[in-house]
Amino acid sequence: MQGIVCGTARSPLAALLAATLAVLALAAPRPAAAARYRIDTRTGALAYPVVGRDGLVVLDERVIQSRVLLMIDDILADDPDVDDPALQPDVAMGLNLRWFANPGVASAATDPSNMLFVPNAQDMGLEVLWAWVEATDLLGGWLNARLGRIVHEGPLGWRSDDGARVRFDPFPWLGLSVVGGFENVRGLRLSNSPFAPEGVDRWSQEGEGADRYRLHAPVEHRPTVGAMLDGTAGPVQWAAAYRRTWRSVEGGISEELLGAELSADLEFLSAFGSTRVDLVTGLVADASAELSAKFDRGRHRLEARYEYFRPTFDAESVFWVFAADPFHEVTLRYRFPLAGALRGEAWASARHIEDPGGDVAIESLAGPFTDLGGGLGLSLATPDFSASLRWKAIVGSTTSLAGADLTVDVPLGDRWSLFAIGSGWYYEDLLRDASYGVGGAGRAGAAVTIYEGIRLEAEAQVAHDTREGTTFAVFTWLDLGVAL
Fold first, then answer.
1. Rounded to an integer, what distance in angstroms lies between the CA atom of residue 207 and that of residue 198?
2. How far apart are CA 3 and CA 197, in angstroms?
3. How many Cα atoms are found within 13 Å in the side-chain-facing hemisphere of 166?
4. pLDDT tens across 325-379, in order?
5. SS3 category, 343
6. Which of 120, 211, 295, 359 is deepest in the core (most CB within 10 A)?
7. d(C-alpha 217, C-alpha 235), whole Å
8. How far is residue 351's CA from residue 373's CA, in Å, rounded to a whole number?
9. Distance CA 484, CA 471 (A)
10. What is the Cα–Cα distance from 295 to 304, expressed in whole angstroms?
11. What is the pLDDT of residue 357?
12. Where are the alpha helices (DSSP H) in 401-469?
C-alpha cells in the first residue's frame, strides 16, 4: 500500500481537481430536490511483511485504511412535460477517496537522509481514486461529458487520467469517446501512487539514503489524448481505440498504442478477438482469439484459444533492457458434466517461446512448440457449499511447472460464509539460472453480514517460496453502505 501526503508537486489540473472536490462537498441539493445519494465506506486492517531482493524483510506493514465513496445523481429536477427520463439532461457527481495510516513504517524509512530509507514508504497518506462531475443525457441522450480524475477502460486496458472525457452515442452500432488530460503515471522509476491527490509525482528525493537507489527523477506531468470507437450490431460487439502519451509537456512520445476488440455471442457459439499494437516500436504487444461452442443446453462446452504476448513498456522505461521472451500459446479446453452437481474440465496447451538470441538457444519439443502442458479440474456446487480442484503441468525446453489448488466456499445461512484455498507448486525457468523452486500457499477467511449494508470480513494467508521464505498476512474489512 502506497500513498502521497500533502506537499507533492502540483499538476496543471490540481486546481481543477480541488474545485471538483469542493463542489462535491458543497453541492448537496435543497430538501425539495429529488437527488439520489449513495455513500459506501470500507475500512480495513492489513498486516504483512515486504521482502527485499536479499530475502530479508525491509518493511513490516501494518496498514489501517479507509475508502469512502460518494455518488450523487438526479441533481436536476425532472421536467414533468417530458415522459422519457433519458431525454432529460442531468448532472451527476462521484468521489472515491482512500486514506491510510501505517504504524509499521519506521520514521527512518521515510527520511531520504537516513541509510534505512525505502522509496515511497509512507506512514500516512491520502489517495484520490476518482473524483468527477458529469453532465449526462445531453442532446436527447446522445452526449455525456465527464470532468476531473476519471477512470476508463477499453481495448487498450485500464487507465486513470486527470482531464475530461466526452462520450457521443448517436446510434447503437456507433459510439465515440474522446479523452484528454494528464496521465497518472503508473509504477515506473519507483513512482509514487498513481492516485496522488495533487497529480503526477515521480520519486525525486535527495539524500544519503536516497542516493543508494540512483533512480530518482524530476516531477513529470505527462499529457495524454485518446479516442475510442465502439458499438453493437445484433450479437456482435466491437471497439477500436488509439492513445498517445508524451513524456512531459515539452518532451517526446512516451507511449502510442492502437488496439481493437471484436466479440459475438450466439445461442450455441461465441467468439472473441483482440489485439494491441505498440506504435512506438512497431511491435504487436499482445493478441488473442477464442472460439467457444456450447452443446446440450450449455452442459458441454468446447473452447479453443490462441494468445500472443510480448512485454512492452513506455519508451523511457528501463525495463526495455531486460529479456522479453515473447510467446505464442494455444489451448483446447473441454468442460463437461459428471455425476449430479459434479462438473469436470480438461485442457491441453502448447507454447512457442520466440528465440531471444544471444547465449540462450531454444529448442523445439514438438513441431514449432517449445513447451507442452495440460490439466484437469473438478468443481462441485450445491446449496450448502461449492468446491473446485485443479491440477496443471507444463514441460519443455524453457519451462518446467506443476501445480494444484483446492478452493472451498461454504455459505452458512443468509449472513455467514466461510472459504479456504490451498495450493502447491513446483517451477523451473530453464532460460535463467537458479530460477527454480517449490512453494505453497494457504488462505482462509470468513464474512458475516451484520445488517443490510454492514458486512465484516477477515482473512489470514501464509505462503512459502524458495526465494522469499515463509510470509504471513492478515486482513480484516468492515463495509458500510447507505443509499438515500
1. 23
2. 9
3. 9
4. 889 999 999 999 998 899 999 999 999 988 765 556 677 777 889 999 999 999 9
5. strand
6. 120
7. 49
8. 8
9. 43
10. 15
11. 58
12. none
SS3 339: coil
Average confidence (pLDDT) over 283-293? 96
* Residue 131 near residue 120 (C-beta atoms within 8 A): no
Give the containing element (helix H, strand E) for 171: strand 157-171
- Whether this prediction's pTM lies above 0.70 is answered by yes
**DSSP H or E segment with residue 457:** strand 454-465
Residues in the chain: 484
Q: Lowest-confidence range among 89-93, 273-277, 330-334, 401-405?
A: 89-93
What Å distances lie between residue 172 and 169, 178, 282, 414, CA to CA?
Answer: 7, 17, 33, 40
Beta strands in 204-360 (DSSP E): 222-233, 236-246, 253-265, 269-278, 283-295, 300-309, 327-337, 342-353
What nine digits make up the cell of 290? 477464442
Task: Please answer whether residues 21 and 131 qualify as being in contact, where contact means their C-beta atoms are separated by less than 8 angstroms.
Answer: yes
* Secondary structure of residue 24 in the 3-state scheme: helix
Q: Take residue 248 and report the three cell numbers written for it.
A: 512531459
Nearest to 24, CA basis, from 66, 63, 75: 75
Region 30-36 average pLDDT = 59
User: pLDDT tens, 443-454?
Assistant: 999 999 998 889
